[in-house]
Amino acid sequence: MCTAIQGRHSRSFFLVFFLFLSGANNTFYLVEWRKGQPWHSAAAARREEKKRKEKKPNQRCLSSYPPAGSEMTSGSLATRPSPPPPHPRCCCSTTAKRRPFSIRATQSGVSVQSLPPDKETPVTGAAYSFTGATTSLTSKILTSSKKITLVRHGLSSWNAESRVQGSSNLSVLTETGAKQAEKCRDALANIKFDVCFSSPISRAKSTAEIIWQGKEEPLVFLDSLKEAHLFFLEGMTNADAKKQYPELYNKWREDPSNFHVNGIYPIRELWGTARQAWEQMLLTPGENLLVVTHKSILRALICTALGLPPERFRAIDVNNGGMCVFTVNKQGEAMLQALNLTAHMYSDHTYYQY
Length: 354
Fold this sequence. Notes:
With 354 residues, this protein is an alpha/beta fold. The chain has three domains: 2-53, no CATH class; 98-133, no CATH class; 146-346, Phosphoglycerate mutase-like (Rossmann fold). It is built from nine helices and eleven strands. The chain has a six-stranded mixed sheet. A three-stranded antiparallel sheet has the order 1-2-3. Strands 4-5 form a two-stranded antiparallel ribbon. Strand 4 and strand 5 form a beta hairpin. The protein is globular. The relative contact order is 0.13. Residues 1-33, 57-83, 86-96 and 118-126 have low confidence and may be disordered.
Protein backbone atom coordinates (compact mmCIF):
# COMPACT_ATOMS: atom_id res chain seq x y z
CA MET A 1 0.00 0.00 0.00
CA CYS A 2 1.08 3.60 -0.48
CA THR A 3 0.17 6.43 1.85
CA ALA A 4 1.23 10.09 1.77
CA ILE A 5 2.67 10.94 5.17
CA GLN A 6 3.64 14.55 4.92
CA GLY A 7 3.86 17.41 2.43
CA ARG A 8 5.66 20.71 2.93
CA HIS A 9 6.88 23.71 0.96
CA SER A 10 10.56 24.57 1.23
CA ARG A 11 11.55 27.47 -1.02
CA SER A 12 11.27 26.30 -4.66
CA PHE A 13 10.54 22.61 -4.28
CA PHE A 14 7.85 20.41 -2.87
CA LEU A 15 8.87 17.26 -0.97
CA VAL A 16 6.58 14.32 -0.21
CA PHE A 17 7.48 11.11 1.60
CA PHE A 18 5.76 7.84 0.70
CA LEU A 19 5.57 4.83 2.94
CA PHE A 20 5.63 1.46 1.18
CA LEU A 21 4.56 -1.69 2.93
CA SER A 22 5.89 -4.91 1.46
CA GLY A 23 3.38 -7.69 2.04
CA ALA A 24 6.04 -10.35 1.64
CA ASN A 25 7.99 -9.53 4.80
CA ASN A 26 6.09 -6.56 6.33
CA THR A 27 9.01 -4.25 5.63
CA PHE A 28 8.45 -0.47 5.39
CA TYR A 29 10.26 1.64 2.79
CA LEU A 30 10.46 5.43 2.97
CA VAL A 31 10.93 7.18 -0.36
CA GLU A 32 11.04 10.92 -1.13
CA TRP A 33 9.47 12.71 -4.08
CA ARG A 34 10.35 16.15 -5.40
CA LYS A 35 8.09 18.40 -7.42
CA GLY A 36 8.61 18.04 -11.17
CA GLN A 37 10.05 14.49 -10.95
CA PRO A 38 8.43 11.09 -11.57
CA TRP A 39 7.52 9.59 -8.22
CA HIS A 40 10.10 6.75 -8.61
CA SER A 41 13.11 8.88 -9.67
CA ALA A 42 14.55 9.33 -6.20
CA ALA A 43 14.61 5.58 -5.59
CA ALA A 44 16.16 5.04 -9.01
CA ALA A 45 18.83 7.64 -8.23
CA ARG A 46 19.69 5.77 -5.04
CA ARG A 47 20.00 2.52 -6.97
CA GLU A 48 22.32 4.13 -9.51
CA GLU A 49 24.44 5.59 -6.71
CA LYS A 50 24.67 2.18 -5.06
CA LYS A 51 25.77 0.56 -8.34
CA ARG A 52 28.41 3.25 -8.81
CA LYS A 53 29.82 2.66 -5.34
CA GLU A 54 29.87 -1.08 -5.91
CA LYS A 55 31.84 -0.74 -9.15
CA LYS A 56 34.10 -3.79 -9.49
CA PRO A 57 37.87 -3.17 -9.46
CA ASN A 58 38.45 -5.19 -12.63
CA GLN A 59 36.26 -3.01 -14.83
CA ARG A 60 38.35 -1.68 -17.68
CA CYS A 61 39.54 1.86 -17.45
CA LEU A 62 39.13 3.90 -20.63
CA SER A 63 42.01 6.21 -19.84
CA SER A 64 44.43 3.84 -21.57
CA TYR A 65 43.08 4.78 -25.00
CA PRO A 66 45.14 7.29 -27.02
CA PRO A 67 43.94 10.90 -26.88
CA ALA A 68 41.89 12.30 -29.71
CA GLY A 69 43.93 13.31 -32.73
CA SER A 70 47.05 11.39 -31.66
CA GLU A 71 49.18 10.06 -34.50
CA MET A 72 49.77 6.36 -34.97
CA THR A 73 52.70 4.57 -36.59
CA SER A 74 52.67 3.90 -40.31
CA GLY A 75 50.76 0.84 -41.39
CA SER A 76 48.39 0.96 -38.45
CA LEU A 77 44.69 1.54 -38.53
CA ALA A 78 43.22 5.02 -38.49
CA THR A 79 42.98 6.70 -35.10
CA ARG A 80 39.76 5.79 -33.34
CA PRO A 81 37.62 8.52 -31.75
CA SER A 82 38.66 9.30 -28.21
CA PRO A 83 36.34 7.76 -25.57
CA PRO A 84 35.04 9.79 -22.66
CA PRO A 85 37.55 10.40 -19.84
CA PRO A 86 37.64 7.88 -16.99
CA HIS A 87 35.48 8.36 -13.97
CA PRO A 88 37.38 10.26 -11.23
CA ARG A 89 36.90 7.32 -8.90
CA CYS A 90 38.20 4.74 -11.39
CA CYS A 91 40.44 2.29 -9.59
CA CYS A 92 42.64 1.59 -12.63
CA SER A 93 46.11 3.04 -12.76
CA THR A 94 47.62 3.62 -16.20
CA THR A 95 51.06 4.52 -14.89
CA ALA A 96 51.65 1.89 -12.21
CA LYS A 97 53.93 -0.99 -13.18
CA ARG A 98 52.07 -4.27 -13.38
CA ARG A 99 53.85 -7.12 -11.60
CA PRO A 100 53.21 -10.86 -11.85
CA PHE A 101 51.47 -12.39 -8.87
CA SER A 102 50.68 -15.81 -7.48
CA ILE A 103 47.25 -16.95 -6.29
CA ARG A 104 47.11 -19.77 -3.75
CA ALA A 105 44.21 -21.37 -1.90
CA THR A 106 44.55 -21.29 1.90
CA GLN A 107 42.42 -22.49 4.80
CA SER A 108 41.22 -18.96 5.43
CA GLY A 109 40.51 -18.13 1.80
CA VAL A 110 42.77 -17.00 -1.04
CA SER A 111 46.28 -15.60 -0.77
CA VAL A 112 47.61 -13.24 -3.46
CA GLN A 113 51.35 -12.53 -3.46
CA SER A 114 53.61 -10.62 -5.85
CA LEU A 115 56.31 -12.73 -7.46
CA PRO A 116 59.94 -11.73 -6.78
CA PRO A 117 61.93 -10.25 -9.69
CA ASP A 118 63.74 -13.52 -10.41
CA LYS A 119 60.36 -15.19 -11.05
CA GLU A 120 59.31 -12.63 -13.65
CA THR A 121 59.58 -13.44 -17.33
CA PRO A 122 59.07 -11.23 -20.39
CA VAL A 123 58.05 -14.23 -22.48
CA THR A 124 54.28 -14.04 -22.13
CA GLY A 125 53.67 -11.87 -19.11
CA ALA A 126 51.15 -12.76 -16.44
CA ALA A 127 50.02 -16.01 -18.06
CA TYR A 128 52.62 -17.80 -15.94
CA SER A 129 51.69 -15.92 -12.77
CA PHE A 130 49.01 -18.34 -11.64
CA THR A 131 50.56 -21.19 -9.71
CA GLY A 132 49.64 -24.51 -11.28
CA ALA A 133 48.10 -22.96 -14.41
CA THR A 134 50.63 -24.78 -16.58
CA THR A 135 52.86 -27.83 -16.17
CA SER A 136 56.65 -27.76 -16.15
CA LEU A 137 58.33 -29.80 -18.88
CA THR A 138 61.61 -30.04 -16.98
CA SER A 139 62.79 -31.25 -13.60
CA LYS A 140 65.14 -28.28 -13.26
CA ILE A 141 64.96 -24.49 -13.43
CA LEU A 142 66.23 -23.25 -16.79
CA THR A 143 68.98 -20.64 -17.08
CA SER A 144 66.80 -18.56 -19.41
CA SER A 145 63.45 -18.54 -21.13
CA LYS A 146 63.40 -20.23 -24.55
CA LYS A 147 61.62 -20.15 -27.88
CA ILE A 148 61.13 -23.42 -29.74
CA THR A 149 60.07 -23.69 -33.39
CA LEU A 150 58.79 -27.13 -34.39
CA VAL A 151 58.82 -28.12 -38.08
CA ARG A 152 57.32 -31.20 -39.73
CA HIS A 153 59.45 -32.78 -42.47
CA GLY A 154 58.65 -32.21 -46.15
CA LEU A 155 56.56 -34.54 -48.28
CA SER A 156 58.00 -38.08 -48.25
CA SER A 157 57.67 -40.93 -50.75
CA TRP A 158 55.26 -42.81 -48.50
CA ASN A 159 53.24 -39.63 -47.86
CA ALA A 160 52.77 -39.41 -51.62
CA GLU A 161 51.83 -43.10 -51.86
CA SER A 162 49.48 -42.98 -48.84
CA ARG A 163 51.43 -45.62 -46.92
CA VAL A 164 51.69 -46.09 -43.17
CA GLN A 165 55.16 -44.74 -42.28
CA GLY A 166 55.75 -45.13 -38.57
CA SER A 167 59.41 -45.39 -37.64
CA SER A 168 60.48 -46.92 -40.96
CA ASN A 169 63.59 -45.42 -42.56
CA LEU A 170 62.54 -46.53 -46.07
CA SER A 171 60.34 -43.49 -46.72
CA VAL A 172 62.55 -40.75 -48.15
CA LEU A 173 62.16 -37.05 -48.90
CA THR A 174 60.69 -36.42 -52.36
CA GLU A 175 61.64 -33.63 -54.74
CA THR A 176 58.51 -31.78 -53.64
CA GLY A 177 59.50 -32.37 -50.01
CA ALA A 178 62.98 -30.93 -50.66
CA LYS A 179 61.41 -27.79 -52.14
CA GLN A 180 59.17 -27.53 -49.06
CA ALA A 181 62.28 -27.75 -46.87
CA GLU A 182 63.85 -24.94 -48.88
CA LYS A 183 60.75 -22.82 -48.35
CA CYS A 184 61.06 -23.45 -44.60
CA ARG A 185 64.72 -22.42 -44.72
CA ASP A 186 63.91 -19.17 -46.56
CA ALA A 187 60.97 -18.40 -44.26
CA LEU A 188 63.24 -18.73 -41.19
CA ALA A 189 66.22 -16.86 -42.68
CA ASN A 190 65.68 -13.81 -40.45
CA ILE A 191 65.71 -15.82 -37.22
CA LYS A 192 68.97 -16.84 -35.56
CA PHE A 193 68.75 -20.28 -33.96
CA ASP A 194 71.27 -21.52 -31.41
CA VAL A 195 70.83 -25.21 -32.20
CA CYS A 196 68.74 -27.52 -34.40
CA PHE A 197 67.36 -30.85 -33.14
CA SER A 198 66.14 -33.49 -35.57
CA SER A 199 64.89 -37.03 -35.78
CA PRO A 200 67.56 -39.31 -37.29
CA ILE A 201 64.98 -40.96 -39.57
CA SER A 202 65.75 -40.21 -43.22
CA ARG A 203 62.83 -37.94 -44.23
CA ALA A 204 63.23 -35.68 -41.19
CA LYS A 205 67.05 -35.80 -41.29
CA SER A 206 67.11 -34.67 -44.94
CA THR A 207 64.65 -31.85 -44.19
CA ALA A 208 66.78 -30.63 -41.28
CA GLU A 209 69.97 -30.73 -43.34
CA ILE A 210 68.39 -28.55 -46.04
CA ILE A 211 67.07 -26.02 -43.51
CA TRP A 212 70.36 -25.97 -41.60
CA GLN A 213 72.57 -25.74 -44.67
CA GLY A 214 75.47 -23.30 -44.27
CA LYS A 215 75.01 -22.77 -40.52
CA GLU A 216 77.83 -23.20 -38.03
CA GLU A 217 75.57 -23.94 -35.06
CA PRO A 218 75.19 -27.62 -34.12
CA LEU A 219 72.69 -30.01 -35.71
CA VAL A 220 71.78 -32.63 -33.11
CA PHE A 221 69.92 -35.89 -33.83
CA LEU A 222 67.76 -37.28 -31.02
CA ASP A 223 66.24 -40.75 -30.89
CA SER A 224 63.48 -39.28 -28.72
CA LEU A 225 62.27 -37.38 -31.82
CA LYS A 226 61.69 -40.57 -33.83
CA GLU A 227 58.22 -41.41 -35.10
CA ALA A 228 55.95 -43.93 -33.38
CA HIS A 229 56.60 -47.59 -34.19
CA LEU A 230 53.58 -49.15 -35.93
CA PHE A 231 54.82 -52.73 -36.33
CA PHE A 232 53.70 -54.70 -39.40
CA LEU A 233 51.44 -51.87 -40.62
CA GLU A 234 54.49 -49.87 -41.66
CA GLY A 235 54.94 -49.79 -45.43
CA MET A 236 51.39 -50.93 -46.16
CA THR A 237 49.08 -48.63 -48.08
CA ASN A 238 46.23 -47.38 -45.96
CA ALA A 239 43.77 -49.18 -48.23
CA ASP A 240 45.57 -52.53 -47.86
CA ALA A 241 45.99 -52.14 -44.10
CA LYS A 242 42.29 -51.43 -43.72
CA LYS A 243 41.40 -54.45 -45.87
CA GLN A 244 43.78 -56.98 -44.26
CA TYR A 245 43.56 -55.79 -40.63
CA PRO A 246 40.22 -53.95 -40.42
CA GLU A 247 39.84 -54.11 -36.65
CA LEU A 248 43.43 -53.13 -35.92
CA TYR A 249 43.48 -50.39 -38.57
CA ASN A 250 40.19 -48.89 -37.40
CA LYS A 251 41.54 -48.84 -33.84
CA TRP A 252 44.60 -46.95 -35.08
CA ARG A 253 42.52 -44.41 -36.98
CA GLU A 254 39.59 -43.97 -34.59
CA ASP A 255 41.02 -44.73 -31.12
CA PRO A 256 44.82 -44.40 -31.42
CA SER A 257 45.48 -44.13 -27.68
CA ASN A 258 44.09 -47.68 -27.29
CA PHE A 259 45.74 -49.07 -30.42
CA HIS A 260 48.08 -51.87 -29.35
CA VAL A 261 50.02 -54.83 -30.72
CA ASN A 262 51.22 -57.62 -28.41
CA GLY A 263 50.42 -55.49 -25.36
CA ILE A 264 52.41 -52.47 -26.60
CA TYR A 265 50.57 -49.15 -26.92
CA PRO A 266 52.63 -46.99 -29.33
CA ILE A 267 50.80 -43.70 -28.74
CA ARG A 268 50.87 -43.98 -24.95
CA GLU A 269 54.59 -44.71 -25.16
CA LEU A 270 55.00 -41.73 -27.49
CA TRP A 271 53.80 -39.42 -24.70
CA GLY A 272 56.67 -40.59 -22.50
CA THR A 273 59.10 -40.19 -25.40
CA ALA A 274 57.85 -36.64 -26.01
CA ARG A 275 58.42 -35.66 -22.37
CA GLN A 276 61.95 -37.06 -22.61
CA ALA A 277 62.56 -35.04 -25.79
CA TRP A 278 61.31 -31.83 -24.19
CA GLU A 279 63.65 -32.23 -21.24
CA GLN A 280 66.64 -33.04 -23.45
CA MET A 281 66.05 -30.01 -25.67
CA LEU A 282 65.19 -27.49 -22.98
CA LEU A 283 68.20 -28.35 -20.83
CA THR A 284 70.52 -27.75 -23.79
CA PRO A 285 72.22 -24.29 -23.78
CA GLY A 286 70.62 -21.75 -26.09
CA GLU A 287 67.52 -19.59 -26.12
CA ASN A 288 66.22 -20.16 -29.65
CA LEU A 289 65.76 -23.79 -30.71
CA LEU A 290 64.69 -25.37 -34.00
CA VAL A 291 63.19 -28.88 -34.07
CA VAL A 292 62.52 -30.97 -37.20
CA THR A 293 60.55 -34.18 -36.79
CA HIS A 294 57.40 -36.20 -37.71
CA LYS A 295 53.66 -35.65 -37.32
CA SER A 296 52.88 -38.18 -34.60
CA ILE A 297 55.74 -37.13 -32.31
CA LEU A 298 54.85 -33.49 -33.07
CA ARG A 299 51.33 -34.17 -31.85
CA ALA A 300 52.76 -35.73 -28.70
CA LEU A 301 55.16 -32.79 -28.13
CA ILE A 302 52.33 -30.28 -28.49
CA CYS A 303 49.90 -32.21 -26.32
CA THR A 304 52.39 -32.88 -23.52
CA ALA A 305 53.33 -29.19 -23.49
CA LEU A 306 49.64 -28.27 -23.18
CA GLY A 307 48.83 -30.99 -20.64
CA LEU A 308 46.60 -32.95 -23.03
CA PRO A 309 46.31 -36.76 -22.73
CA PRO A 310 46.92 -39.35 -25.50
CA GLU A 311 43.16 -39.42 -26.16
CA ARG A 312 43.61 -36.01 -27.83
CA PHE A 313 46.15 -37.37 -30.31
CA ARG A 314 44.06 -36.61 -33.39
CA ALA A 315 42.83 -33.24 -32.10
CA ILE A 316 45.94 -31.59 -33.61
CA ASP A 317 47.30 -31.74 -37.15
CA VAL A 318 50.49 -30.39 -38.72
CA ASN A 319 51.04 -30.28 -42.48
CA ASN A 320 54.25 -31.21 -44.27
CA GLY A 321 56.52 -28.19 -43.75
CA GLY A 322 54.12 -26.74 -41.18
CA MET A 323 55.57 -24.88 -38.19
CA CYS A 324 54.52 -24.56 -34.55
CA VAL A 325 56.04 -22.14 -32.03
CA PHE A 326 56.29 -22.41 -28.24
CA THR A 327 57.78 -20.12 -25.63
CA VAL A 328 58.98 -21.66 -22.38
CA ASN A 329 59.79 -19.75 -19.20
CA LYS A 330 62.54 -20.50 -16.67
CA GLN A 331 60.22 -22.82 -14.75
CA GLY A 332 59.86 -24.99 -17.87
CA GLU A 333 56.24 -23.98 -18.46
CA ALA A 334 55.28 -23.82 -22.13
CA MET A 335 52.88 -21.56 -23.99
CA LEU A 336 51.74 -22.24 -27.55
CA GLN A 337 52.32 -19.16 -29.73
CA ALA A 338 51.52 -20.57 -33.19
CA LEU A 339 50.11 -23.81 -34.58
CA ASN A 340 50.70 -25.23 -38.07
CA LEU A 341 51.98 -22.09 -39.79
CA THR A 342 51.88 -22.73 -43.55
CA ALA A 343 51.88 -19.28 -45.22
CA HIS A 344 55.46 -19.90 -46.38
CA MET A 345 54.31 -22.98 -48.30
CA TYR A 346 52.21 -20.88 -50.67
CA SER A 347 54.17 -17.62 -50.92
CA ASP A 348 57.52 -16.01 -50.18
CA HIS A 349 56.38 -15.28 -46.63
CA THR A 350 59.14 -14.90 -44.03
CA TYR A 351 59.00 -14.95 -40.26
CA TYR A 352 60.79 -12.66 -37.82
CA GLN A 353 62.02 -12.96 -34.26
CA TYR A 354 59.57 -11.60 -31.68
